[in-house]
Amino acid sequence: MLTRAEGPPLACRRAAGREPGVVFLGGFMSDMTGEKATALDAFCRKRGRAFLRFDYRGHGASGGRFEEAVLSDWLADTLAVLDRLTEGPQVLVGSSMGGWLMLLAALARPERVHALIGIAPAPDFVLRVDAGLTAEQRRDLDGQGFFLRPSEYGDGPYTITKALIEDGKRHCLLDRPIPVLRPVRLLHGMRDDAVPWRDSLRLVERIEGGDVRTVFVKDGDHRLSRPADLELLTTVLDDLLREPADGQ
């Protein structure tokens, strides 16, 4: 557990190894025990590469209540583990909401980034949530400050708070150039029913760096956690880790 005065303790798992290291940023309401996180852990351990996975506050084994947290809090958690538990350049691998946090962390700590990998990255997803509210959900949000959103994966409804949506709007990226100059790889399933694959095209247009590549998996879903998807992920990661740390 990473304990700190400015927030609840964060559950982390870290493997020592050489740099550049790898940091996995999970998605909304996910934790560090999922298939992508464990596959990356095994990949990095096998190759003697430093690896870190963790749970944001209110997620998994970390402290705090999910309903009381907003994107700014999860970004603070990301920067805390990056600053305190890693050294040197890192490949940030962000899944869904983690892809948004990955970009925000890269903007906040550009000197700590070797490369970025987004898996169905979901920057600005609160705008899509806000625009898609039903009349009943809007009444709940305005009246009680939250509404319950059904999960696509059968793991119970998500609590979406008004504070989360309003805070998220302050971190939106797709309405302006994104000054990330490190290599970026985006992986996106074309059967993703949570984050439209065309959002990755919008993201490519916004990122200012030239070394940006996207792989679309025609039969892939949002999670991209099948064996073939995980093999694609580790292959892309392996290629990035071979690039010089000072390459643009």
Provide a descriptive summary of the structure in words.
With 248 residues, this protein is an alpha/beta fold. It has a single domain (2-125, 174-241), classed as Alpha/Beta hydrolase fold, catalytic domain (Rossmann fold), CATH 3.40.50. It has helices at 35-46, 71-85, 97-108, 125-131, 135-144, 162-169, 198-206, 227-241; strands spanning 2-4, 7-10, 12-15, 18-25, 49-54, 90-95, 113-119, 146-149, 158-161, 184-189, 212-217. The protein has a 7-stranded mixed beta sheet with strand order 3-5-4-6-7-10-11, with helices on both faces. Helix 2 packs across helix 3 (97-108) and helix 4 packs across helix 6 (162-169). It is globular and about 50 Å long.
Name the descriptors.
8 helices; 35% helix; Rossmann fold; two-stranded antiparallel sheet; alpha/beta; 23% strand; 248 residues; globular
Largest beta-sheet characterization = 7 strands, mixed
Fraction of helical residues: 25-40%
End-to-end C-alpha gap: 35 Å
Q: Which ranges are low-confidence, i.e. pLDDT below 50, for 5 or more consecutive residues?
A: none
CATH topology: Rossmann fold
Rg is 17 Å
- In quaternary terms, these chains amount to single chain
Give the integer mean of the pLDDT values: 95
Strand content: 15-25%
Molecular shape? globular
Count the DSSP helices. Answer: 8
DSSP strand tally: 11
In total, the number of domains comes to 1
Q: Structural class of the secondary elements?
A: alpha/beta
What is the spatial order of strands in the main beta sheet?
3-5-4-6-7-10-11
CATH superfamily: Alpha/Beta hydrolase fold, catalytic domain
CATH architecture designation: 3-Layer(aba) Sandwich
Give the ordered list of helices and strands. Answer: EEEEHEHEHEHHEEHEHEH
| CATH class category label | Alpha Beta
